[in-house]
Amino acid sequence: MTDPGTPEEQHLDGYAQILTDACATGRKLTRQERESLRQGGEQAAEAGVGLRALVRAHLRTARDVRTRMTSAEAGHLLAAVEEAVDAFAEGHERAQHLAVRQEEAARREFIDDLLYGRSDLGRLAARAERFGLLLSHAHAVAVAQGGDPYEDGHPVTRRVEQSLVTRFGDRRILLTTKDGRLICIAPGDQSDVLTHFAKQAHAATDGGRVAVGRPHPGAGGVVHSYEEALNALDLAARMDLEGPVLHAADLLVYPVLTRDRQAMSDLVRSVLGPLQLARGGAQPLLDTLTAYFDTGCVAAEAARRLSLSVRAMTYRLERIHKLTGSDPGDPVHRYTLQTAVVGARLLGWPEQPL
Length: 354
Fold this sequence. Notes:
With 354 residues, the protein is α+β, with helices and mostly antiparallel strands. It has 3 domains: 9-100, no CATH class; 140-250, Alpha-Beta Plaits (2-Layer Sandwich), CATH 3.30.70; 255-347, Arc Repressor Mutant, subunit A (Orthogonal Bundle). It has helices at 15-25, 31-46, 51-66, 71-74, 77-116, 121-130, 155-168, 191-204, 218-239, 253-258, 261-272, 283-294, 299-305, 310-324, 331-347, and strands spanning 138-145, 174-178, 181-187, 209-212, 216-217, 245-247. Strands 1, 2, 3, 4, 5 and 6 form a 6-stranded mixed sheet that branches. The longest helix has 40 residues, at 77-116. The radius of gyration is 33 Å and the shape is elongated. The N and C termini lie far apart (84 Å). Residues 117-235 form the CdaR GGDEF-like domain.
């Protein structure tokens, strides 16, 4: 018999009697006996008693019971123990799975509240400590987006998480997923964490893109940084921005340009509207201006990007000058044209009417 008072023994009530009754006739355990053992397994798991220790306790009890059995009864003991331990382990595992599901649900609820700012900030800060965050400090958020949607149990998520744990150990970092994207939340003064996350996520997602928000203080700061990262990803898609890693701090000019949407629409319409009179519409000439400005106004490089001859590129620039009255090569006109081109890309013009 196990030592009185041990944690294992507290969850073996009735076990010895079940073995004795079953072995008396060699019968299988009844449904009621199996359910009783399952409940014992659940209670043991909830009390934090490990399954290995419990199995050893079951075997010790079985050896003790055997000393009081006849030879015929002992012949049935192994089968009864197998049934009993199986039922007990089933209950133990059932409780463990339920605890994991409850923990996952609590973590998901916390992540949703944190990233959407839907909970009381004081309560949110208290819950955050359970998941390794101190919201009294500033935090920054990085968001990775690949070709596939990623969930918490996805192999890509596990690979990135393992890399972070191996590199940074028990630092206060939270890796999660939201809407199919990988998300890393780290203290604002630990940029090396987000840099490593960006590198690993880019590789694990087969060339996916990562955006990093600026550090902001408090629980609301996490939401702010997260939204900056999402906006950076959206800008990257609309503006065809190059580079696998985007920093919101480097893209602040774009929100400024779109803050007054009506003013930007008027600028695009008045400056670039005449391009619609060209054969083939405005898009080819808009692409010409985009390539020209993206290459630092080097016509030869812009022509190469567009698979044009330098002569064809020069003709297009002259055509733009004639239609708009603005010369892309003139520093005075260049700023207005480039701002209008950026605005057109942000507003989706000419595909989207202004």
